[in-house]
Amino acid sequence: MTATLTPELKNRGREPSVPVAPAGVNVPAGASDVPALLIEGVTKRFTVGRKRKPVVAISNVSLRLERGDIHGILGANGSGKSTLIRLVSGLLTLDEGRVEVFGHDLVRDEMAVKRLINRVSVDAAFFKKLSPMENLLFAARLYGLDGATARRDAIRIMERLGIGSKRIGRPVEQMSRGMQQKVAIARALLTSPALLLLDEPTTGLDPRSKLEVQTFIEEVRDSHDATIVLTTHDLAEAERLCRRITILNDGRTVAEDTPDGLKRLVADRFGEPPTLHAVFMTYTGRSLDDDVEEDESGDDTD
Amino acid sequence: MAMLAHEMKASYAFIERNFFLTKRYWGWEIAFLVYSVAGALSVSLIGADVGSARLLLTLMVGAIFWNYLSVVFSWIAETIAVERWEGTLEYTMMAPIRRTTQLLGSVVYAMAYGLIHTAVILVELVLFFPQMDLSKANFGTALIFVVLGSFSFVGIGIMAAILPLLYVERGAQMTFVIQSVILLVSGVYYSVTILPGWMQVASRLSPATYVLDAVRRALIDGAGFGELVHDAWPLVVMGIVFIPAGVWLFGRAERYAKRTGKLKRVG
Fold it and tell me: Exposed end of chain A (fewer CB within 10 Å): N or C?
């Protein structure tokens, strides 16, 4: 059974601070057996050069997220985190397996899935000469919002994220990296995604901005029933925000549990200290510091 | 009906965004306009120098209407290239809209922008050459051919827009080369009859050849539509073939880009 999930319905009985889902989106109502995101046996290969063998970026990955979850995906550079996010976003085709978002098959019902999701990537991609408001207005119209509603909601979301009214009309290129990332988050939230894909949203932010974004992610989850997939290099962030964590290594799932469950596992099975850093080291075979250094040097393969 | 309203709203998003971009890049817009006016004047002055009113009009029509067609072509062909440049391509591609909706928005803005841009050049040239005799001009026929030509140019523009989708690094340059080849073979400033044989074959495949020939004959000789049917039917056929072919090829290219991961990289 499906029902039309409007902002009014979803916000009933609570004070709305950000919109939730676009009007006319069919999200199964109250169906606890329909996962927010179902990834089953997904494989993706890329062929680089004509005579080379295909590189397996994602290999037989499965995942199930319930509504309201924040699910973390950890992995070294090149482990397939961003590829997995792109597959769910419909930006890459699946070689094998299937993806369902609130019961809608990504391949057969692509448009319905697209209406339910949005994504924030590590690089805040905008029309740099346009203002945050102009960029958000463009995004909102693509998702069917009218101009007046989009402007009102955009101002509310940006104010909540600490983007003052003076900055809303200035070109994005005049904003700091952290501020741009907040606008990127505002853009995603403006379209009221039922499933929000956050691909390293706090990478490169200063501690204050990072904290603000993390708090906002919690708020979105708690007050608006959004389901969130979060890839991150920040283990403290993963521990704070995620109910469950999947660790990817070379495109494969090597571990999945709650943060506490993963820590217990490495302590009990490998005699490691019960920290997420030890979990990361154990399952990816490398230090997170190495990973971050590689990331900063411009590697963009995952 | 709701679906149609959604798609129209989304189409408007591209029109509005392109308007915002034009507004924000106003300095470049003025520079481009000044360059276009100067270019059209420079070419037309060759006719004035020779002392031939007919050559002056021939060159002027070429300069003005090539400007319109090339502006329309550029805006559509750069639909993808601009998004690659800005890094927004993935966001637009994952939005719940049909590709035809996106292309429609780009086409409407391109034609409106092209008409305004060209009108400014036209006014400048008319003011610069007050002695120009347009008493015989058939403006109605000229307008019909500009509209007909726009549709076939839209089709070619959509096909050209595919290149930045397929070739991340060189796609935008390839569209520029296509535009240059069309300029060369379409008789913008000369008759296509002076071209080598193989180039004349290519000229028959360019909608600009028919548009410019028809507009010149309408404005200089006052020819009516009935006298220019030989220019009209190729444009109609090209419009009917090129636009659906362009949309179909665009869809194929998008699927290829999604299969190979080419949406990701920023050119």
Answer: N
Any chain A CB within 8 A of the CB of B21?
Answer: yes
Q: How far is A48 from chain B (nearest CA, A)?
A: 9
Task: Determine contact: B99 vs chain A, CB below 8 A.
Answer: no
- Interior CA angle at A274 toward A272 and A276, to 5°? 100
Has residue B82 been placed in a domain? yes
Within chain A, strands assigned E span: 3-4, 26-27, 37-46, 55-65, 70-75, 96-101, 104-105, 117-120, 195-199, 227-231, 244-249, 252-257
In CATH, A3-127+188-296 is 3.40.50.300: yes
pTM score, two decimals?
Answer: 0.85
- What's the CA gap between B24 and A128, in Å, rounded? 10
State the amino acid at position B176 in one-letter form: F
- 10-residue stretch averages of pLDDT, chain A, 302 residues long: 34 37 48 86 87 88 93 92 95 96 96 94 89 96 92 91 86 89 90 92 84 84 84 91 94 94 90 89 71 47 46
Q: Which residues of A have a CB under 8 Å from any CB of B? A: 24, 46-47, 83, 86, 89-93, 111, 114-115, 117-119, 121, 123, 125-130, 134, 137-139, 141-144, 146, 171, 187
Inform me whether the C-beta atom of residue B95 falls under 8 Å from chain A C-beta atoms: yes
Structure tokens at B149: 């030509």
Cα A190 to Cα A149: distance, rounded to the nearest angstrom: 10
CA distance A154 to A145: 11
Q: Parallel, antiparallel, or unpaired: how do β-strands A70-75 and A26-27 relate?
A: unpaired
Q: What is the pLDDT of residues A220-273, one digit of tens each?
A: 877 777 899 999 988 999 999 999 999 999 999 999 999 999 999 989 888 888
What ipTM does this complex have?
A: 0.89
User: Which domain covers residue B147, as residue numbers?
Assistant: 10-260
Which tokens sit at A288?
Answer: 């997170």
